[in-house]
Design goal:
With 112 residues, the protein is α+β, with helices and mostly antiparallel strands. Helix content is 27%, strand content 21%. It has helices at 2-23, 30-37; strands spanning 41-45, 50-54, 63-64, 74-76, 84-86, 95-98, 109-110. The strands form two sheets. Strands 3-5-4-6-7 form a five-stranded antiparallel β-sheet, with no helix packed on it. The chain has a two-stranded antiparallel ribbon with strand order 1-2. The protein starts with a helix and ends with a strand.
Length: 112
């Protein structure tokens, strides 16, 4: 009888710890579940290490003049760029400028 009671207590502790870990993990986050169901990447972004869903674009770094030519935005990463390039991912945590009708003198903005 005492062994059954100890076994029950042990299982209750295991279930409690499992529920506690699950509650504070990414698996309890609906955004995480949606992200993974789309086969995208769940990664930390920016200095605050905020976890976000990041989608890779298959036309990344293709030369472009405006965002109509890309799955993401047409961007410049430096003021010296001679052409725009299609964004590699939907992440906004890096330095770039969205461009339309490319001009290489536009300001480059860094986001974090």
């Amino acid at each position: 009888m005492n062994n059954k009671k100890n076994l029950l207590i042990w299982w209750l502790v295991v279930i409690f710890l499992w529920a506690l870990v699950f509650t504070f993990s990414d698996y309890a986050n609906p955004e995480y579940l949606k992200c993974k169901s789309e086969w995208w990447n769940w990664v930390e972004q920016g200095l605050a290490k905020t976890k976000m869903c990041v989608k890779d674009y298959d036309d990344g770094w293709k030369v472009c003049n405006n965002s109509d030519e890309c799955k993401g935005d047409c961007i410049a990463k430096t003021a010296e760029d001679t052409a725009g390039k299609c964004q590699m991912t939907n992440s906004e945590f890096w330095c770039f400028q969205t461009i339309e009708n490319f001009k290489n003198w536009e300001w480059i903005l860094c986001r974090d």
